[in-house]
Amino acid sequence: MLNKRNSFIIAGGGTGGHLFPALAIGDALKKRFPNAAIHFVGSKFGLESKILPERGDGHTLLTIRGFMRGISPRALFRNLLFPIRFAIAYLKSRRLIKRFSPVVVIGTGGYASGLPLLAAIHKEIPTVIHEQNSYPGVTTRWLSSRATRVCLSYEDARRHLKKKVVLSPATRFGRTL
After folding, report:
1. pTM above 0.85, yes or no
2. Residue 122: DSSP 8-state
3. Gap between the Cα atoms of 122 and 137, Å rounded
4. What is the pLDDT of residues 124-165, one digit of tens each?
5. Which of 16, 105, 158, 174 is the least crowded, having the fewest Cβ atoms under 10 Å away?
């Protein structure tokens, strides 16, 4: 049983593949803990910047972006800004965690989930990574060994991670959703 004030931070986004699982987890937590406070974290540059305000959920949008993998002046400029954006978003994530005092921080992947998860790890707050892809992304691979739990939707994802993981019930019984 969780404490009196159940509060959760759910971070993820950039694409619908990370955002919509985050929203589904939030909806499931609201059903299970009707008085829970749920706060979503995403990126100002991702799909969540349009979806979260429309839903009316409590949310914070970070100014973080992923690396551009091409070679162009635009990619070079954006990648040079990454360390500054990283530092600002990390500090904002720490302040959010301090203010919100979550019982757990849940990340669903994408660059938007990395800094809230990292801040929670540094503050020794339990973390859960939910990886819904068969090949884990950079953020999941980077943080999985330090997360409290990693939950996978596909057995194939296990071989890319060093952490003991929990598989979804459908995966354990040989079915995929």
Report:
1. yes
2. H
3. 21
4. 999 999 999 889 988 999 999 999 999 998 888 888 887 666
5. 174
